[in-house]
């Protein structure tokens, strides 16, 4: 593994000026990866935890798929371009980034749909469904809303047989007991960036004879994941954040091999059939991860996602983690040094091992401040009720970007530019 100047255990002394940040960029072992992306020169992009940047190869790959495979070869490309196997081949390429075997990851549908599939499958397991005492789905109060909405909707479909119990952050392990039917938890809190101990939660679930469905949307591509090693059985994630798969990129799901033929799916679409092109009148699930497919694969978006996954070719995720920590350490320090007097408070964990690759700062005027920053070319986002959020994507974020972004924030606050009426108007997407 390449040794990163930051290390991973203790934060180094931050540079005192912009030249020091430039020096860190010169010795950064990941610096050349920025060339794999198409980034506007006048933008400091710190929103890769919401939508990843455009990979350089995506446009050409999409053009080939549209003009050659679809335009010339037409329907034949399901075979000649292997469209039919894209859910599995794209999943196999992704497997390395989540610490799974190639046959344990499938790209299909959206994160929300995949949560529905796996959570429904867990709740239907005989030892769960047959135990009248197991009626609690454990999740966090601050979990990403779609996870909670899907759990609520699924429970309604099942006749409200279960209770969705929302616990405070850090209380998941203690909440798991003999009444737990399933645990639904996001590894990285989308607001605070707090990182859960996956292995510890999986151990607690196993001891209680229950199961965890993990949402990895804010961790895949930013952290070294070890699903097999950490005892994970079921997980989902999205493709458009750190994986750089493009807006609305497909989601993915992970099912440990031992569970693939034991877990049923409520969405028994034809591509999950054992032999889709036999067109049998009754559903017979595939005896592998393909059973969790539903409808026809979305070819164009999968081609784009594969380009995003390929930006990680040759990359050691330990180096990604080291740089991520170094970037967040630097940004936090610079905010403390240059912007503390303006009322910002960072809600991320100070302890590095509990922090993912984002920082969020609370401020009573968070929304207009972020809009004023975006107008000056520093792109983050806003989350209710009062957070400005920054995602640090080690493949293309530079140390000098941290310096320049904080200087812009200081200027926005010093000038009170954010008070302008145009920055007060709320956009639909924040």
Keywords:
single chain, 430 residues, alpha/beta, seven-stranded mixed β-sheet, four-stranded antiparallel β-sheet, disordered N terminus
Write up this protein:
This protein has 430 residues and is α/β, with parallel strands linked by helices. 34% of the residues lie in helices and 13% in strands. The protein has 13 helices and 15 strands. A seven-stranded mixed sheet has the order 4-10-9-8-7-5-6, with helices on both faces. Helix 4 packs parallel to helix 10. The N terminus is likely disordered.
Order of helices and strands: HEEEHHHEHHEHEHEHEEEHHEEHEEEH
Q: Structural class, please?
A: alpha/beta
Provide the helix percentage. Answer: 25-40%
How widely separated are the two ends? 38 Å
- Mean of all residue-level pLDDT scores: 95
Question: Looking at the structure, what is the overall shape?
Answer: globular
């Amino acid at each position: 593994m390449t040794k990163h100047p930051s290390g991973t255990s203790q934060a180094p002394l931050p540079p005192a000026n912009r030249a020091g940040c430039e020096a860190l960029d010169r010795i950064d072992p990941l610096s050349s990866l920025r060339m794999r992306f198409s980034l506007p020169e006048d933008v400091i992009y710190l929103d890769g935890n919401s939508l990843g940047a455009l990979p350089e190869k995506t446009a050409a790959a999409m053009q080939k798929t549209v003009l050659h495979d679809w335009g010339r070869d037409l329907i034949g490309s399901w075979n000649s371009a292997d469209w039919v196997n894209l859910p599995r081949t794209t999943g196999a390429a992704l497997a390395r980034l989540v610490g799974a075997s190639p046959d344990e990851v499938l790209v299909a549908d959206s994160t929300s749909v995949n949560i529905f599939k796996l959570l429904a499958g867990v709740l239907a397991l005989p030892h769960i469904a047959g135990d009248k005492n197991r009626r609690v789905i454990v999740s966090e109060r601050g979990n990403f809303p779609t996870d909670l909405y899907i759990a609520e909707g699924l429970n309604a479909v099942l006749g409200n047989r279960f209770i969705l119990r929302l616990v405070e952050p850090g209380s998941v392990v203690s909440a798991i007991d003999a009444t737990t039917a399933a645990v639904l938890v996001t590894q990285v809190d989308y607001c605070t960036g707090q990182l859960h101990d996956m292995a510890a939660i999986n151990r607690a679930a196993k001891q209680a004879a229950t199961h965890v469905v993990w949402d990895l949307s804010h961790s895949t591509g930013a952290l070294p994941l070890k699903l097999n090693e950490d005892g994970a059985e079921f997980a989902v994630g999205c493709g458009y954040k750190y994986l750089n798969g493009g807006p609305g990129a497909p989601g993915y799901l992970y099912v440990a091999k031992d569970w693939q033929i034991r877990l049923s799916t409520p969405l028994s679409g034809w591509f999950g059939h054992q032999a889709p092109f036999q067109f049998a009148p009754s559903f017979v699930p595939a005896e592998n991860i393909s059973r969790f497919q539903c409808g026809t694969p979305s070819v164009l978006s999968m081609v784009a996602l594969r380009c995003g996954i390929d930006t990680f070719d040759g990359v050691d995720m330990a180096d990604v983690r080291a740089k991520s920590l170094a970037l967040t350490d630097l940004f936090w320090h610079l905010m403390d040094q240059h912007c503390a007097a303006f009322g910002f408070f960072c809600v991320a964990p100070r302890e590095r091992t509990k922090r993912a690759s984002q920082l969020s700062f609370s401020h009573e005027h968070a929304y207009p401040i972020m809009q004023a920053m975006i107008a000056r070319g520093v792109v983050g986002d806003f989350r209710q009720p009062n957070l400005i959020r920054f995602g640090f994507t080690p493949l293309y974020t530079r140390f000098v970007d941290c310096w320049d972004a904080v200087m812009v924030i200081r200027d926005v606050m010093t000038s009170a530019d954010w008070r302008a009426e145009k920055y007060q108007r709320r956009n639909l997407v924040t």
